[in-house]
């Protein structure tokens, strides 16, 4: 890789981590396509993307933990399923062509963009009922919400598998899932997602590593900038209006999905 190309990619990854960490996301929706535009092999790009998501997640989680925005119990239970899915997705990604996975990736981005633009409208939490053991009632600070485990675990398995296949941490799917399906407050969803995407990415990364897709030179060279940006973005996130950011970012994702779709056709 030429020196100019590396510095350009380094700066782009830094800005990506800065913005995505503020949204509780891992950055895979941009880490991957940016590498593809520089003609890096899809499977190597996916493995590098997952490694950088791990770094971003670690950095931003350190900040969100201090702000008490992470529901650790919820995150760990959900990640038990998503990590398995992420590992299987990463392991078997080699059975799909880069062209097919790029189309799938564009579709996922478009799906996430729709919900970001549409917005989230959580419903109030019902009173606990002993007759509904599949509902897990959660409390974090002044927030209350419920997790339907009968739905959450299978959905998390699918989200993890898809994330591992296309080299993302799954935050663009997990935040809509937590808020729309389980009415988790936005601030808790963002903080918890920052941790969860790293766990999911670890499963996918291990799968890619076992399949021999990792280029350590690229991954380790980009990691320091991503870690610093994760710290800065997460600190900024605590006082940012996330509704407006997500709407604007949703339109950006729509544009990115269209560009990726065009790139696969040309």
Give an overview in words.
This protein is mostly helical. It has one domain (25-123, 135-265). Helices cover 74% and strands 5% of the residues. Strands 1-2 form a two-stranded antiparallel ribbon. Strand 1 and strand 2 form a beta hairpin.
Q: What percent strand?
A: under 5%
What kind of sheet is the major sheet? 2 strands, antiparallel
Report the helical percentage.
Answer: over 70%
* Count of DSSP strands: 2
Q: How far apart lie the N and C ends?
A: 24 Å
How is the topology of this model organized?
Layout: H1 3-22, H2 28-37, H3 42-66, H4 72-92, H5 98-118, E1 135-140, E2 143-148, H6 149-166, H7 171-182, H8 186-210, H9 216-237, H10 242-265
Antiparallel strand pairs: 1-2
How would you summarize this macromolecular structure in one to three sentences?
74% of the residues lie in helices and 5% in strands. The chain has 266 residues and is mostly helical.
Keyword list:
266 residues; mainly alpha; two-stranded antiparallel sheet; 5% strand
